[in-house]
Design brief:
The protein contains 19 helices and three strands. With 423 residues, the chain is mostly helical.
Length: 423
């Protein structure tokens, strides 16, 4: 990176942190507070009850074991279920014995606000490698400015920061795995994806890229890293906790879930009335949660499975055709495509894909690429929310507009394996 670009990038990063860290500090952080409450309940001996399994569709809300923990710490904001692996409960539980949640939340706020611009810069590096001769049109400061504006100015990145979402770390690690793959550092790439998969299970599917590229060293590092993390999780938390976690994942898979920000095709089917009668969910205090659930119809499960298999096959074929040097942007494209097919993908599942959004300007030129970038970012922006709610006649207008926007983003980024010239 030229010295001038390095200086401008550093200035942009400093300005972003000065503005963002205070803005996102001290918020409710309901998703991360669910992890803290679950760790507190686990430390108190609640065991598998932290997952609150039952036969009804997954409703996203905290089970009784977590309510007790929430009340102990005086948390009176939205209370959500804990949907992560037992490993993180076992690691976080000792901290709950010596500290309240505030230092943990502040550390997460700093980490997430560092990783958000970090993932945009990683995406810029991928875009450079995907260009002819290893170059890309947009310099790093421009790529960073556009990427941060798109992410933080809408409910893909803005909601993730408000929630202190673990998906920020997952997206960062996915892009880091892609970057290390392109840098011929397979061990680092494999370990990064293994950690991402330990935080959220779906990144394991992205290993299909290494299968297509025949990058066996990265695949081996991923397998060994995943096995080590899985072994550590079993050693610390035991099988009973893992059985409860796997049961929760099956419950989620069998649910048709609709909210304003469940941006995926199964939720779109529910939004269009194709998943049967939906049940409205209410928060623990009786207030509407704006969550609608139903048992997932059999046809929808089959269609989602076929769609996911097709996406993975396409990803494998693209990786195999490109060889070891393939298109580095295949990683965020495939991450977005997988999320479109899975039943509980929220807006923040597209962080890695949206971090690469400015690459459309390199691929399609400043006019067409700029128009595509502005359309996607504008559709997902906070100012557009009243518009979609006013003009779209469906149960969840944001779900419809948002799903179409991320679909356009995934297709546009995956349309070509190299940048197009302006025309």
């Amino acid at each position: 990176m030229p010295r001038r670009d390095t200086a401008l990038t550093a200035i942009l990063l400093a300005i972003y942190l000065v503005l963002a860290v205070p803005a996102f500090s001290g918020l409710a952080n309901p998703d991360l507070m669910a992890a803290w409450a679950a760790a507190l309940a686990y430390a108190d001996g609640a065991g598998p009850a932290v997952y609150g399994l039952h036969d009804a569709p997954f409703d996203t809300l905290a089970p009784p074991a977590l309510h007790t923990a929430f009340e102990r710490i005086g948390y009176d904001e939205p209370r959500y279920a804990y949907i992560y692996a037992p490993l993180w409960l076992a690691l976080l539980a000792p901290l709950t014995a010596v500290s309240g949640p505030e230092p943990f939340l502040l550390a997460a706020t700093w980490a997430n606000n560092l990783m958000l611009p970090g993932m945009v810069l990683l995406a810029w590096r991928l875009a450079r490698r995907s260009g002819p001769g290893g170059t890309a049109g947009l310099p790093a400061p421009a790529f960073l400015l556009i990427g941060l504006a798109a992410l933080a100015g809408g409910y893909v990145g803005g909601l993730a920061l408000y929630q202190n979402q673990v998906q920020i770390a997952v997206a960062f690690l996915i892009l880091l795995a892609a970057d290390r793959t392109g840098a011929r550092a397979p061990v680092a790439a494999g370990l990064a994806l293994a950690l991402a998969a330990a935080l959220k299970s779906y990144p394991v599917l992205l290993a299909v890229i290494w299968i297509g590229q025949r990058d066996w060293r990265a695949l081996a590092a991923f397998g060994l890293g995943g096995a080590a993390l899985g072994g550590l999780s079993l050693a610390l938390a035991g099988w009973e906790m893992h059985a409860a976690f796997l049961s929760q994942l099956r419950q989620i898979a069998d649910t048709a879930l609709l909210t304003s920000v469940t941006l995926n095709l199964p939720a779109l089917a529910a939004n269009l009335g194709l998943a049967g009668d939906l049940t409205s969910i209410f928060h623990w205090n009786g207030l509407p949660a704006e969550v609608y659930v139903a048992p997932r119809p059999g046809w929808l499960g089959i269609a989602s499975g076929i769609g996911l298999a097709a996406v993975l096959l396409a990803g494998w074929r693209r990786a195999a055709q490109g060889g070891p040097a393939g298109d580095p942007l295949l990683w965020p494209v495939l991450a977005g495509a997988v999320s479109l097919m899975t039943p509980v993908s929220w807006s923040f599942h597209y962080l890695a894909t949206m971090a690469a959004l400015p690459a459309l300007i390199d691929r399609f030129g400043p006019w067409r690429g700029g128009a595509l970038t502005a359309t996607v970012a504008g559709t997902l922006s906070f100012p557009a929310i009243p518009l979609w709610r006013a003009v779209l006649p469906v149960a969840e207008p944001l779900q419809l507009s948002g799903t179409l926007a991320v679909l356009v983003m995934v297709v546009a980024l995956g349309w070509t394996s190299g940048p197009r010239q302006a025309g």
